[in-house]
Design brief:
This protein has 9 helices and 7 strands; from the N terminus they run H-E-E-E-H-E-E-H-H-H-H-H-H-E-E-H. By secondary structure, the chain is an alpha+beta fold. The chain has 2 domains: 135 residues, Alpha-Beta Plaits (2-Layer Sandwich), CATH 3.30.70; 70 residues, no CATH class. A hairpin with a 2-residue loop joins strand 4 and strand 5. The chain starts with 18 loop residues before the first helix and ends in a 7-residue tail after the last helix.
Amino acid sequence: MGEKYKGRLLPLPKDDARLPAIVDRIERINSYLSRQTFAPIGPVRLVRKFNQGDAEGFAWNKGGRLYGPHSWMKKDTERALITINGEATVELDFRTSHLTILAGLGHVPGLVLGEADPYTVEGIPRPVVKQWVTMTLSHGRRHSRWSAVAIAELGKQGVDLRSDFPLKRTGDSILKALPILSEEGEGSAVGMGWADLQFIESEIVLSAMETLAFDHDVPSLPVHDSLIVPVQAKEAAKKVLEESFKKAVGVVPVID
């Protein structure tokens, strides 16, 4: 990914005829969650944050991730301690979510589908491969240098991107194993940036939450590309997530 910039908050366009349905959808799931008990985090109320609202032709289809006020959204060590209605929980995570979405929509080769981890490239640590793929798909073509964000994030894991993984050589190796770009170096996924992918992903997660809540009476907590659910509902929730994903993009994801 490139540099990160803090976006500005925009007032809700109250004259937008699409807004009531969007608000009602979140209020309905929040009403259901308000009747559940979440420990140790307490009551849960979600908000949905859309992006690029000031772009021409904005249609509530950019971003859209679900957020809560609690630390479960960031700390996996704390998420493991969460109980729902007194029951232990498990986190179900889409493996390579954005790559799988793009494969399902025909933008990248279907070789990313299946049980094998597409981020496995000989001689390159998985976090480096994932970072390169993420920033490349977001950009739609190859970058000329590692971003400051990537350097900082991988540096925390003891990886010196500039010294140990020069971008051109690293990209060449990754593309041999994972040909997500054309031979000219331009991405077949051009036109689908991070905000588009996050919206599709958020729709999948929210739809799964709604099905679990209103068809199965199973509460859940969203974590971007995963769901926290009661342990006893693990298999049912996994099936619902698979069905929601397939309905959106036509393929079944690997869920860990």
